[in-house]
């Protein structure tokens, strides 16, 4: 190994050690006294080595390990790739293997997600009061504790997947990344100049020379953010100018899972006006995408709302503490399984003044 390779290897080793430390700290914080740091960290390290040493044998054998530290069962079998293979064949569900230090098997169960349910929902429920290592395939594993996903990692080197910046997120958290974009770029027009007449709340019809429609202004800004903040090469974008038939505005594909985003807007740009029917249209489109093969893990409709503040506030109980209207059903139209619709209000100087006047 030459000096450059050695330096790179050492840097990767240090990053992996730091990630391991962060993961164990998060598990301890989530589980409290239910997690014994000494035994628990040792068990987690044994699992890390097991995956690294058996990566070729494990291949795409999906399984989950329930971690029980500080237990010394007598006569239990030792975890092996062949045992996992047999369990995969024995049942159509995900093997949930309870292991203790030394990778001794305590018990075996299977998680069987409900029809149309994301397998991660079953993992979330199973991690109540314990820590779970979920091996999805040879390029992705995740760690859960107390119904929270602690981290997503590469089994080969124990490095986090898709780290890029302060706002970087895993592909599965694409909807949270979209909200990051709204908060940091769009909400108060911090970076995105979408108003033609802010006082009268009239949106731009276009942003020459490249963006020729109001929708393309929001679409381009969101897609650019996601391409920066999600794992490399995971975001595919429809050409909002030329159109690409009946296909999603933004498609996110990562480690065999896909996610769909449909972008829309409400308000007026001086010549066109969109309001409530836009919500129904967005939900119906997301349903069509959800029925396709391969079926996406989830769909998200994002609607940038340039109407007046009273119209947005009519959503009432759907508005979260961070000021985003979120719902899975709107007046009879229901989002697909694991789908969500966000209405993102576009603040303006005039809206702020009106809010102050109301007070």
From TrEMBL:
Q: Which domain of life is it from?
A: Bacteria
- What's the name of the protein? Uncharacterized protein
